[in-house]
Amino acid sequence: MISKIKNDFLIPATLVFIILALLPLIGAPRSWVLYVFLFFIYLAMANMWNLLAGYSGLISLCQPAFLGLAGYTMAIGTWVGVPWWIGIIGGAIIAALFALLISGAVFRLSGIYFAIGTLVVPEAIRMVFYLWKPVGGAMHGAGAGYMIKGIEGVSQHAIFWLAAVVGIGSVYLMRFIIKSKLGLGLASIRDNQRTAASIGVNVFRVKLYTFLISAFVTGVAGAIYYLNQGYIEPSATFNVRWTMVMLLATVIGGIRTEQGPIIGTIIVVILYFALARYAGYSFLIQGIILIVIMLLSPQGIMGIIKRLFSRKGVKN
Amino acid sequence: MNDIITPIIMGIMLGGLYALIALGLSLLFGVMRLINLAHGDFVVLGSYLAYGIATYLGLDPILSLIIIVPVMFGLGFLIQKYIMSRAFAVSSDTPLIIAFGISLIIQNANQIAWTPLSRGLNTGYSHASFFLGSLQFPVIYLLDLIAGIVVMLLLREFLTRTYLGRAITAASQDKRAAELMGINAKRVYGYAFAIAMAFAGIGGVFLGMTFPFTPTSGISFLTIAFGTVIIGGLGSMWGTFLGGIILGLVQTLGGYFFGPASQMLIVYVIVLVILAIRPQGLFGR
Amino acid sequence: MTDQVLLKISNIEVFHGTFQALWNLSLEVRRGEMLALIGANTSGKTTLMDTVSGLLHPAKGIMEFNGYDITCLDPYQIVELGITQVPEGRRIFPEMTVFDNLMIGSYCSCARKNRILNLGRVYELFPRLKERKKQVAKTLSGGEQQMLAIGRGLMADPKLMLIDEMSLGLAPIVIDEIFKALKKIQERGITILFVEQNVKRTLEEADRAYILENGRVALSGTSAELCEKDQVKKAYFGIDECAI
Ligand SMILES: Nc1ncnc2c1ncn2[C@@H]1O[C@H](COP(=O)(O)OP(=O)(O)OP(=O)(O)O)[C@@H](O)[C@H]1O
Ligand SMILES: [Mg+2]
Fold it and tell me: What are the distances in angstroms from CA C216 to CA B39, C45, C107?
């Protein structure tokens, strides 16, 4: 029963996603389109966080660095005449290169050290962008803020569909990774890091690949987000709120499951929609939800579903 | 030439403060292998409590410790008893994620209560200064140093002279053996968390008198505390003190050479570099 | 008659996760005796001791100590009732001084009031610990560490003392010394249950013994009885003579 759900969820999920992606064409309200846009962006990011935290055992708190660097690369690119779509790819590559740069350092850290090491990274970058403006005139206010130039001709719909492609693509990417040799390596590391190493799995390389993939895809999603937003500035970009989104979506849905981030992201977006009026209490509410879920159902909604099905299985 | 003496002495005095805010983090790591991501926010909570008490009761921040220490202590005990102890039973990653959640809750709560504006704890002696030779220093920095030393000595006496203190030390060296000695590990953890939290509160009060703070300052205080612990090596009290002084010097000298705006960035970079090359700490084994 | 039984273990089953280590195991410890637990590696001796100490809980069965049901108690409650364990590998607190290690031994509230008295007794039993009371425990020799571990256990003022792998890695002279100390402890009315690899020596010293095999009691009886059994002779002595 469970394996059946697992095998089949991709097709109905894709159908639902495609229907969602058609929303702008049927004249849905702008705010709806915005929330679906956020859904796709968050979905890609949550999937990538799940890849790290769930499948590779890397509780990464530096994802804002990846999406921010990609966003900045794209934004600054438009100031020096690089087209935005090259900026997105280039930004993602910069994010992946940055991941490569810090991997040597952060991978030496185990568990909790890794988490705290990665937590400091976006903070440090934020400060850099507070102090340094790579192109354009003097600083106005606190930090290097940029408008995205030359995107007047780009339709909102196009950006929306780009997000849809990345969001849906990330689901397929997860499936592909899990079924690939990399996924096998991850599974063996998850079971036992030392045994994995002893049977010839290069633990460092496997983790590095997932780190780079995660940085790249998170970068793409981040750049698209800022393309849509039209401007970028450091304090909201290199901000823990991003980490909270990914973490919450993954934990609510079910960490270390393929479907978890999808379910979780839907709930997170609905939550944002419902709580839009209480934006000032957002972290408070999210934090409480996070803690309650972690304590009551550490496997999130997928854990509950699995338990229900296995109970039914016993009864029959 | 005389110029550089000033940041050096200030850095050393700041080291006492940094050791103070690192003690709680180090204690919790030593006892239950938890790096408490919310520690920085606990420190900020201490600053805000002092701010609130000063605003509504007109109490001097140092006097307000009479209220802050027990409040933080009780809060810490409750957090450990009702949240963290359960988290440890779930999986090894859970306490970390939950601490992250707590950190954001406190941040948000501070923001709701006190607005995102930057605050500071002002007292009659906030702007007072003293002289060493011809050089002038803020009195607050001297208080920071004294507070750091006093709290460290108190902790040392507590850990070596009382049953509870010995139990905490024992549990951090060998939890199983400690349980076999009749130590109720759950209770000891509760007290350890409570003490760590009380220290965070004390640290917060002195930090708040030294630097301005906002609801999101937690992360920089966490980084400082963590950097101090990492530099000093975990578990060694004098190492922690040394770590605090080194980090204090990094900050004041960084400010001296590169300008005050970039001093925190330099602290972050140094912490990351040390983490990368010697995660067991400069003086760790 | 039942009054003579200090610890009564009835039909316990103990698991490490999904692995079952003890199978329907029953055992009695009588007041004032020195009881030995014998068995090959992995036969479940440590598991049994940890279960009595409350570090593990049986999935089935009952344990009664001195009239109390201790099956579901936590380690600290068990110490409070008067059972102390000297664990396998000694597990003294390495960074603490000898004195602090001993003081930690008297942590439970029942032992605190008698700590001065007990400290004196431990020093009398192991004068070497007194000489070295300010020394950091990890710098002690193996034998001294074992003495410290036993002394630390005594500080809890126990009625029953469990000692796991008592003489592992110790020189014969030290083993003699420790056995002498155990006799003195027994004379003070403290019941002892110990695990020891040297079967011949064990049967010489103990009043009774249980032999465990694969998590079950294979044999039990007084030392003299056990010495007579062919199984014991074959399995543990290899020759047909017995010391007693
Ligand atoms: N924490 C654990 N997890 C899983 N299995 C365990 C654990 N501890 C012990 N075991 C298993 O339980 C069985 C009994 O182990 P136990 O340590 O009780 O044996 P023992 O008789 O004390 O052996 P030794 O003489 O080597 O000390 C062994 O097969 C062991 O592998
Ligand atoms: Mg054993």
Answer: 49, 10, 34
